[in-house]
Amino acid sequence: MTDAATDDADLADDVADPGHRWEPWPVVPVPPLRPRWGRALDLVGLAVVALAGVALRIVQRSPLWLDEALSANIAALPLGDIPDQLRQDGHPPLYYVVLHVWQDVVGDGDTAVRLLSALLGLALLPLAWDAAGRIGGRRAAWAAVLLVTLNPFVLRYATEARMYELVMVLALAGWLVADHAFRRPDLPRLAGLALITATLLWTHYWGMWLCAAAGVGLLVRAGLAHRRGQPVRRTASLRVAGALVAGGVLFLPWVPTLLYQSTHTGTPWAEPAVPTEIAAVSLVDLGGGPAGESIMLAVGLALLLALGLFAAPGTGTRIELDLRTRPEVRRLALLVLGTLVVATAASWVGGAAYATRYFAVVAPLVLVLAGVGAARIGGAASFRIALAVVLLLGTVAAVRTAVSRPRTQAREVADAIEEAQATTGPGALVLICPDQLGPALSRELPDDVEAATYPRFESPRLVDWVDYEERLAGASPEAFAAEALERAGDRPIWLVWSGTYSTHEGTCEAVANALQGARPEGTAVVLADSNAYEQENAYLYPAPAPAG
């Protein structure tokens, strides 16, 4: 036997230790329904889920909102200008480069730029199948795929022109490659893991917390293997950890920009969250938000997670619990928990806020665990009924959050301005407060409209986040309104504004009051829609009547 073969055999012995590792793809078949038409019913159900999953990923009527429009507008810049622009934004560049190429090939319309995320969302399905199957067998694989297909969190970001669907794909792919590399830590697998690690880091900074948690876990595993006299397992753990480090080295060229962003951009719209808040709001958002069916779905997912952690595999209708947690899912759960702990600590050190979209870095791992939990439900009918309830709640929640809820009123406002110009003539001055409404509105406004943002009369296509709070603190709403009146002259003025932004409390209202004092004929044309994610008002201040 060769040395390589001996190493593989030793690693297999380590892996076969039931107290420390599980065999890949355990035989846990999907229980058949007894009636003859049971298989046909399964096929119909799978077809319905597949069609619903595809439809919910491509049906989105709302225009791009701030984050999406900002992504598309940055990606539309010349390729060499994207890194410099991102110094003002706070993200790594990979997704924007990919979107830049995508827009050149497919187009830059709303549907076109969102299609990239939809396709990435479909790529999650085979990854979920493999990940859950390796832990819980075919039944867990089917459950995980179905949960990912109709999960409202996944669907939300599959219909957004943002990097979060790519983050989910990379996180789950990285876990799978790391698992393969641990079993056989040869150069191709380790190189693949290093490449995926680097790609994730160049896509979103929360990849750092996932990699840090994974690295700590691997070092702990190596230490335990050393104590237990398992040299091959120890070597495999260290090699996989080394691949993560290699991926981090590939990210080093961007670190100076990251340090500048962390010092000057940050998250001026919120404060750091505590761990319990992160866990609670993330679970609710995984269910689709604060709506009734979403809360029920979140509870259902929590129950499935508990089953995945504590329930023993079985074929009957009874579920046996092991409060020590099941070893085959313990490490995956610790990776999720460790990522959130590291991220929370980093946010408090750096003063960064938490948004539930950052949960994308662990969301697919959580859904894999939920799929394993569903597989613990014995009995053919019980297994299918439990999944059907969760999938139905997910579909309803997804329709509410990802399809029917308007993400912005930008198109409504732009239509109102264009309609008014048919009477008043072109040339209106459109003021936007806060500037965060600008990117979405800029994609909808007529070309002959001059638009400028508070407080520096900048282009609305982009937002400069550098020292954001300091710039706002030094600005005067009254001075801005006075300069706007001077710039407009005898032209109509529109003020598109919102009072819901914590960074601009009372500011935009003060601008409106100053304009109203100078042009008392001002009227509200569009009012904020409380159902919209990005709410905005549009006030028209007509041109002053000629003297005499």
Q: What would you note in describing this structure?
A:
- The protein has a 5-stranded mixed sheet, sandwiched between helices.
- Residues 1-23 have low confidence and may be disordered.
- It is globular, with a radius of gyration of 26 Å.
- It has 548 residues and is mostly helical.
- Helices cover 62% and strands 4% of the residues.
- It folds into 2 domains: 3-404, no CATH class; 410-541.
- It has 22 helices and 5 strands.
- GO terms for molecular function: pentosyltransferase activity.
- The chain crosses the membrane at residues 40-59, 166-182, 202-224, 236-255, 294-312, 332-352, 358-378, 385-403.
- One of its GO terms (biological process) is lipopolysaccharide biosynthetic process.
Distance between the termini: 105 Å
Q: Identify low-pLDDT runs.
A: 1-23
Strands across the major sheet, in which order?
2-1-3-5-4
How many structural domains in the coordinates? 2
Helicity level: 55-70%
Strand content: under 5%
Please sum up the structure shown.
This protein has 548 residues and is mainly alpha-helical. It is built from 22 helices and five strands.
